[in-house]
């Protein structure tokens, strides 16, 4: 996909290869289609292409096909409800239009992402978590799965959250995905907590054959609760997705996180190697974080500017 975005050359990009050679050329806007042909994640296609098309010569429309709600990747609902509002703090906006949802193993989903290029990215500061003000989400079924499964996932998640957070209304909507907007069968849930300072945290889970609905709901609820305990201002899945933007931004960015994930360490390693950005990771020194596993990731961005604008 990235080769095509910039008319580059790519060698060794086949299954079994241990080395690739990529020579990029000028990034161009316009319409680009990428199809995993499986339940491979459209969100991962979006992750890799977004930093590129921000520095294109003209607006882009990315037509991404594959899985929208798949394991080992953000669900499209996470991308739309958590990643999008936070990443837009870097000073750009994008539009994400879910045409068709696709699940494991068939895929068949399609998402259209539209965005305009920017001159440069602003740094971000996400260090003030605030207090949780809202908890909401959606529990979905698609295809042949009965609506009761969505209701059971939602109810189990609500019960689990109530044990720990009693003073907030938890609003998880059970949803039957319309037949013309979902390909194949799937079920899952995403729950989001919003704070007084605009931080967003999520827990999510996908149904699998032989796993009962309650279990799926509880797994998502427990993931959310653990992300609310560590005192960070981003959840464990947003950490690594922000690194590339911090590296490219103009100025110093800071995010407060819970334990730094291996994904994040990897993203930092490559951002330093490839973009020559400088990162520091240190334990948070705030009193309220003393008993917690909380870190500050700071980055001196390289101040990438768009030569086309």
TrEMBL record:
<dbReference type="InterPro" id="IPR013792">
    <property type="entry name" value="RNA3'P_cycl/enolpyr_Trfase_a/b"/>
</dbReference>
<dbReference type="Pfam" id="PF01137">
    <property type="entry name" value="RTC"/>
</dbReference>
<dbReference type="InterPro" id="IPR023797">
    <property type="entry name" value="RNA3'_phos_cyclase_dom"/>
</dbReference>
<keyword id="KW-0067">ATP-binding</keyword>
<feature type="active site" description="Tele-AMP-histidine intermediate">
    <location>
        <position position="263"/>
    </location>
</feature>
<protein>
    <recommendedName>
        <fullName>RNA 3'-terminal phosphate cyclase</fullName>
        <ecNumber>6.5.1.4</ecNumber>
    </recommendedName>
</protein>
<comment type="function">
    <text>Catalyzes the conversion of 3'-phosphate to a 2',3'-cyclic phosphodiester at the end of RNA. The mechanism of action of the enzyme occurs in 3 steps: (A) adenylation of the enzyme by ATP; (B) transfer of adenylate to an RNA-N3'P to produce RNA-N3'PP5'A; (C) and attack of the adjacent 2'-hydroxyl on the 3'-phosphorus in the diester linkage to produce the cyclic end product. Likely functions in some aspects of cellular RNA processing. Function plays an important role in regulating axon regeneration by inhibiting central nervous system (CNS) axon regeneration following optic nerve injury.</text>
</comment>
<dbReference type="GO" id="GO:0003963">
    <property type="term" value="F:RNA-3'-phosphate cyclase activity"/>
</dbReference>
<feature type="domain" description="RNA 3'-terminal phosphate cyclase">
    <location>
        <begin position="2"/>
        <end position="281"/>
    </location>
</feature>
<dbReference type="InterPro" id="IPR017770">
    <property type="entry name" value="RNA3'_term_phos_cyc_type_1"/>
</dbReference>
<feature type="binding site">
    <location>
        <begin position="237"/>
        <end position="241"/>
    </location>
    <ligand>
        <name>ATP</name>
    </ligand>
</feature>
<dbReference type="Pfam" id="PF05189">
    <property type="entry name" value="RTC_insert"/>
</dbReference>
<dbReference type="InterPro" id="IPR020719">
    <property type="entry name" value="RNA3'_term_phos_cycl-like_CS"/>
</dbReference>
<feature type="domain" description="RNA 3'-terminal phosphate cyclase insert">
    <location>
        <begin position="127"/>
        <end position="228"/>
    </location>
</feature>
<keyword id="KW-0436">Ligase</keyword>
<comment type="similarity">
    <text>Belongs to the RNA 3'-terminal cyclase family. Type 1 subfamily.</text>
</comment>
<dbReference type="InterPro" id="IPR037136">
    <property type="entry name" value="RNA3'_phos_cyclase_dom_sf"/>
</dbReference>
<dbReference type="GO" id="GO:0006396">
    <property type="term" value="P:RNA processing"/>
</dbReference>
<dbReference type="InterPro" id="IPR013791">
    <property type="entry name" value="RNA3'-term_phos_cycl_insert"/>
</dbReference>
<dbReference type="GO" id="GO:0005524">
    <property type="term" value="F:ATP binding"/>
</dbReference>
<dbReference type="InterPro" id="IPR000228">
    <property type="entry name" value="RNA3'_term_phos_cyc"/>
</dbReference>
<dbReference type="InterPro" id="IPR036553">
    <property type="entry name" value="RPTC_insert"/>
</dbReference>
<keyword id="KW-0547">Nucleotide-binding</keyword>
<feature type="binding site">
    <location>
        <position position="47"/>
    </location>
    <ligand>
        <name>ATP</name>
    </ligand>
</feature>
<dbReference type="GO" id="GO:0005634">
    <property type="term" value="C:nucleus"/>
</dbReference>
């Amino acid at each position: 996909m990235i080769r095509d975005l910039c008319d580059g050359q790519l060698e060794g990009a086949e299954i079994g290869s241990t080395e690739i050679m990529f020579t990029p050329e000028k990034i161009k806007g316009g319409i680009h289609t990428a199809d995993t042909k499986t339940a491979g994640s459209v969100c991962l296609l979006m992750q890799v292409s977004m930093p590129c098309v921000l520095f294109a010569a003209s607006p882009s429309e990315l037509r991404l096909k594959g899985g929208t709600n798949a394991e080992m990747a953000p669900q499209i609902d996470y991308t739309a409800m958590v990643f999008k509002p936070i990443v837009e703090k870097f000073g750009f906006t994008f539009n994400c239009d879910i045409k068709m949802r696709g699940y494991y193993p068939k895929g068949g989903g399609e998402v259209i992402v539209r965005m305009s290029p920017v001159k440069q990215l602003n740094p971000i500061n996400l260090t003030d978590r605030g207090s949780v003000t809202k908890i909401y989400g959606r529990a979905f079924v698609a295809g042949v799965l009965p609506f009761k499964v969505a209701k059971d996932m939602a109810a189990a998640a609500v019960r689990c959250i109530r044990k720990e957070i009693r003073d907030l209304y938890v609003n998880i909507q059970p949803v039957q995905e319309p037949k013309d907007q979902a390909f194949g069968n799937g079920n899952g849930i995403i729950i989001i907590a919003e704070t007084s300072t605009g931080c967003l945290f999520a827990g999510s889970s996908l149904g699998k054959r032989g796993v009962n609905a309650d279990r799926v709901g509880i797994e998502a609820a427990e993931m959310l609760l653990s992300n609310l305990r560590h005192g960070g201002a981003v959840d464990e899945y947003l950490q690594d997705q922000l690194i590339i933007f911090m590296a490219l931004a103009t100025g110093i960015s800071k995010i407060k996180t819970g334990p730094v994930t291996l994904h994040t360490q990897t993203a930092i390693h490559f951002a330093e190697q490839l973009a020559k950005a400088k990162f520091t990771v240190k334990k948070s020194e705030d009193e309220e974080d003393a008993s917690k596993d909380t870190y500050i990731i700071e980055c001196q961005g390289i101040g990438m500017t768009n030569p086309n604008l």
